[in-house]
Amino acid sequence: MIEIRDVHKKLGSLEVLQGIDLTIQSGESIVIIGRSGSGKSVLLKHIIGLMLPDSGEILVDGVEITHLSHDERRQVRRRFGMLFQGAALFDSMTVEENVGLGLREHTRMSPEEVLAKVRACLDMVGLSGVEKMRPSSLSGGMKKRAALARAIAVEPEYVLYDEPTTGLDPITADAINELIRGLQQQLRVTSIVVTHDMASAFKVGDRIAMLHDGKVIFQGTPEETRRADDPEVKRFILGEATEAPFPPRHMEIAARRRTGVWRWLGR
Amino acid sequence: MESPEAQVQRPATDEFLDPVMSLGERVLGTLEEIGRFFMLLWETILQFPAGIRSAPRLVDQMYQIGIGSLPLVILTSLFVGAVASVQAAYQFQNFVPMRYLGTVITRSVVIELGPVLTALVVGGRVGASISAELGTMKVTEQIDALETLAINPVRFLIVPRVAAAILMLPMLTVFSDIVAVFGGWMIARLSLDVSTSVFVEGVRLFFRARDVFGGLVKAFVFGAIISLAGCYYGMKTEGGAEGVGLATTKAVVASSVTILVADYFLAELILRVIFGAAE
Ligand SMILES: Nc1ncnc2c1ncn2[C@@H]1O[C@H](COP(=O)(O)OP(=O)(O)OP(=O)(O)O)[C@@H](O)[C@H]1O
Ligand SMILES: [Mg+2]
User: Fold this and answer.
1) Do A59 and A163 reside in the same domain of the chain?
2) In chain A, what is the greatest distance between 2 CA atoms, to the nearest angstrom?
3) Cβ–Cβ < 8 Å for A187, A79
4) How confident is the model at residue B4, as a pLDDT?
5) Band of pLDDT at residue A249, cut at 50, 70 and 90
6) Could you report the average pLDDT of every consecutive run of 10 residues in chain B (279 residues)?
7) Which ligand is nearest the CA of B238, by number?
């Protein structure tokens, strides 16, 4: 179980997370939705301890991770897998080396066993025959799937998916949705899925949480989400722009940032 | 080059406080950087035993840093030796017998020119490539990805680079010493009319193994400086391609300056304290 309690995080001059409270039960699949820039990726990075909150607590099975040492936090991370929004494959390694890295580092498997496992994982994401290729020669969707294979190869208890289906064709996207569901149901993997794709959200999620203005403004089952009265949620599901699609606050912040840079340069 | 916006938005009091504030900020910033650097150094030392256990990564780095730099080192050393020969001969004119030519070239190369110029040339090449590679990994979240696989980036990325650099720099320096003396001999022979036997006699005259050793100690330290500067600036890269470019520049500048400053202190240490005490 992951408990996020009143997490605040300021990045630069922007308060990205403004008191997030969210509990994720073991074995469930939760989908996090929200506008672009609402802090979904930042939230995932807090859950896996890549970013530390300014205040608030994050508990993984009762262990508060924000006060652990680097090494202790790494130990906790061995139970996690994460698919990055930009894939983040190691570009000095082949696909096979990428996917097998966690196994080679943390298990006593023989090279043949690692290879077999890598093949199996690549098969699961519908990628075969690219084992020896470098990430730079893969397409965007292939990179994403290779990164997904890398995340699940170490058989984590918790998998964080940052937009797993973005950039995939509808058929592959659906296969990935099935895979996420399959891992969760067969291996009791806890899934935390960030997505913009509502079809995927309804398909994959036991529960859907919406992030807005640095807070969780809504959480509920897909059914409840469809019937939600919250105007933000409604708009998000229907894909309608608000009257002012880019609120002036953001423009202001952008202007201020530029000023900051100019000031610094002027010194 | 104040932008008009900044002038309008900033309150008047800032005008007075700004130089003071910015000085304070800079001092604090520099102290913080130094602190961070030593934290990285400490972590590197702690992770050293674990980090060098992976032979393939270490060998790969040794190859890239050592073999990769060899042509550059040979080329520059050859000309360093040549110019040392020309300069020494010019200074000797009518005052010092030419049989000391070999002595002066060898000793200056072994003690000073070999280690320092090798470090500067390799520092440009290797420092830039380390910081660019790690910087790119940082901005494309590959370092984060390592962390999510519970792999310590210091152990996995930094230790092999530092280990390879501190091993390869002395070796490259030995090469550089030999090639430079060879270059000096070539010029002596070809354009200064100093015969080989006279030159070699000069080389042997005051040759001392401990000078070579002193030079190699320097090379070892320079190897650490180059690789740590590359790793430090690489790992703290932020903000895309521009950030990578900035990190690369900083790494090369920092390592070059530090090498020259460290050279002075090492010279004091080695010549006065260690060798001086032995005398
Ligand atoms: N390292 C950082 N430094 C400064 N600001 C950051 C950093 N990372 C993210 N931000 C800011 O935090 C906000 C949230 O970013 P985040 O990447 O979490 O958005 P997101 O919800 O994942 O959006 P998207 O759906 O487009 O991926 C953005 O305004 C972004 O500018
Ligand atoms: Mg995101």
Assistant:
1) yes
2) 60
3) no
4) 45
5) low
6) 45 63 86 92 94 89 94 95 90 82 89 94 96 96 95 96 96 95 89 85 85 92 96 94 95 96 91 69
7) 1
Name the closest-CA residue to atom 5, ligand 1: A11
Instruction: Kindly state the tokens that stand for B65.
Output: 């840093």
Among B184, B47, B201, residue whose Cα is nearest residue B109: B184
In whole angstroms, give the CA distance from residue A40 to residue A48. Answer: 13
ipTM of the complex in this document: 0.86
Q: Centre a 10 Å sphere on the Cβ of residue A256 and count the other Cβ atoms it contains.
A: 14
Strands (E), A113-239: 158-162, 190-194, 207-212, 215-220
Atom of ligand 1 nearest to the CA of A211: 21
Q: Do A106 and B5 touch (CB under 8 A)?
A: no
Whether residues A70 and A125 share a domain: the answer is no
pLDDT band (50, 70, 90) for residue A64: very high
Residues A74 and A164 placed together within one structural domain of the fold: yes
The structure tokens listed for B247 are 């990190």
CB distance from A68 to chain B under 8 Å? no
Residue A80's H or E segment, with its range, is strand A80-83
Cα separation, B269 vs A120, whole angstroms:
59
Least confident of A41-45, A67-71, B129-133, B198-202: B198-202
Name the domain count of chain B: 1
pLDDT at position B22 is 82
Q: Do B145 and A48 touch (CB under 8 A)?
A: no
Task: Determine, for residues A262 and B3 on separate chains, whether the beta-carbon distance falls below 8 Å.
Answer: yes
CATH number reported for the structural domain that contains residue A182 in this entry: 3.40.50.300
3-state secondary structure of A21: strand
Per DSSP, which regions of B66-179 are E strands?
Answer: none
Q: Count structural domains, chain A.
A: 2
pLDDT at A242: 58
What's the token pair of residue B31? 């102290």
- Closest among A32, A142, A40 to A98, alpha carbons compared: A142
Question: Which residue range is the domain that position B248 belongs to?
Answer: 4-278
Whether A54 shows a pLDDT value over 90: the answer reads yes
Q: Is A19 exposed, middle or buried (0-12, 13-18, 19+ CB in 10 A)?
A: middle
Domain interval for residue A189: 2-79+158-228
Residues of chain B with C-beta less than 8 angstroms from the C-beta of A253: none
Q: Which residues contact B152 (CB under 8 A, 6 or more apart)?
A: A70, A71, A74, B47, B146
